[in-house]
Amino acid sequence: MVRKRHYDARHNVPAWILVDGRERQSDDGEPSRTSGMPTLEVLRGAGLKNVCCVVTRYFGGTLLGPGGLVRAYTAATQAAVAAAREAGQIVEMTSVVPVDVHVAYPQYEQVLRLAQDSGAKVSDTDYADTVTIHLVFKAGEQEPFCAKMRELMAGREEIEVGAPKFAEF
């Protein structure tokens, strides 16, 4: 898509990193390790995952040499990352665990306080015969809450712990 959009560019240099550790880069015809690797290094240094960056370069008439290419691609990638951060386009994703708690109405406020004191975020609440509080915890932080709930409610609660997933927190 970038190549189609910038068809007249000399080079479209991609680099990407996935959360599972896979990463790739290409010099797209530039001298070896002068474009893709510097782009990838900036992404690594910024601690970004699940990200792709394509730096497009048009030939301006001046040969930059290997050092100049490294500096140019590094600067372009740094500028792109800084602009994305400033614009709020970089979102931090965290491993989270959804927990649904079903309680009677009289226990609602008490459970809500305990959840908030335990670091949970309330994603939704359903009011029916009982109250269902949909909570989200950072992975690993749900167990102390569940233990306190069992102790506090002495079996008058129902807790459903979901599968971990990545989400904003």
Automatic annotation (TrEMBL):
Residues 101-156 form the UPF0029 domain. It holds the Pfam family DUF1949. Residues 2-81 form the Impact N-terminal domain. One of its GO terms (cellular component) is cytoplasm. GO terms for biological process: regulation of translational initiation. Belongs to the IMPACT family. PANTHER family: IMPACT FAMILY MEMBER YIGZ, IMPACT-RELATED. This is Putative YigZ family protein.
